[in-house]
Amino acid sequence: MRILVVNVNTTQSITDAIGKQAAGAASPGTEIVPLTPAFGAESVEGNYESYLAAVAVMEAVRAHPEPFDAVIQAGYGEHGREGLQELLDVPVVDITEAAASTAQYLGRRYSVVTTLDRTVPLIEERLAVAGLSARCASVRASGLAVLELERDEQAAVDAITEQAARAVEDDRAEVICLGCGGMAGLAERVVERTGVPVVDGVAAAVTVAESLVRLGLSTSKVRTYAPPRPKRIVNWPPQAG
């Protein structure tokens, strides 16, 4: 089985970390192929960057030359999952939805700990669209930008675990979801601080994708995610210069 794991930003070191986390969660015989978009922002922390990332992720997958069995969209929020489902005949799994749905097996209510406060509404909207918001106790911001997660790992751990602990104590969350692909690998330390299950979206998405492939299931093409209708698309892709 081959699974593409697509970073939503253009920072290669984040792609590498996501790929490592995905490979660690994969079953024997599953090949993880990390992809970095060819264009876009170095981190995705707002609506403009998110919509740009959606196009970049779809183009990265369309350009991949080898066959694959599933795709994981490895960014929290709205980054083009629905477009990929129209384009592909294989399962497409979004880490936001994979983490939240997994959390609901583990406790009555879950909270998401993410990066900047401006990303909180994007995640809340994504959970609402996916029908996963009813059992969400809160979406909390650590106050750290995506790229800061790499620059000072200890500061990142401290900020994330602090908000996770507050979610458990103040918001009555029973499970924590790590709300950024760049947080891959931090789950164990959040467990130590909070004492509750912590779901890493990348690892959860790998397990969901593997299960769908093994069950022989993929996206329904009857209505919502039917393939795009053939039509002329003007000036795409854009030409350099």
Walkthrough of the structure:
The protein has helices spanning 12-25, 47-63, 81-87, 95-103, 120-129, 148-151, 153-170, 187-194, 201-214, and strands at 2-7, 31-35, 70-74, 92-94, 110-114, 136-141, 175-178, 198-200. The strands form two sheets. It has a four-stranded parallel sheet, sandwiched between helices. Strands 6-5-7-8 form a four-stranded parallel sheet, with helices on both faces. Helix 1 (12-25) links the parallel strand 1 (2-7) and strand 2 (31-35). The radius of gyration is 17 Å and the shape is globular. It has 241 residues and is of the alpha/beta class. The mean pLDDT is 92. This is Aspartate/glutamate racemase family protein. Belongs to the HyuE racemase family. It comes from Streptomyces tendae.
Topology of this protein?
Blueprint: E1 2-7, H1 12-25, E2 31-35, H2 47-63, E3 70-74, H3 81-87, E4 92-94, H4 95-103, E5 110-114, H5 120-129, E6 136-141, H6 148-151, H7 153-170, E7 175-178, H8 187-194, E8 198-200, H9 201-214
Parallel strand pairs: 1-2, 1-3, 3-4, 5-6, 5-7, 7-8
Helix pairs in contact: 1-9, 2-3, 4-9, 7-8
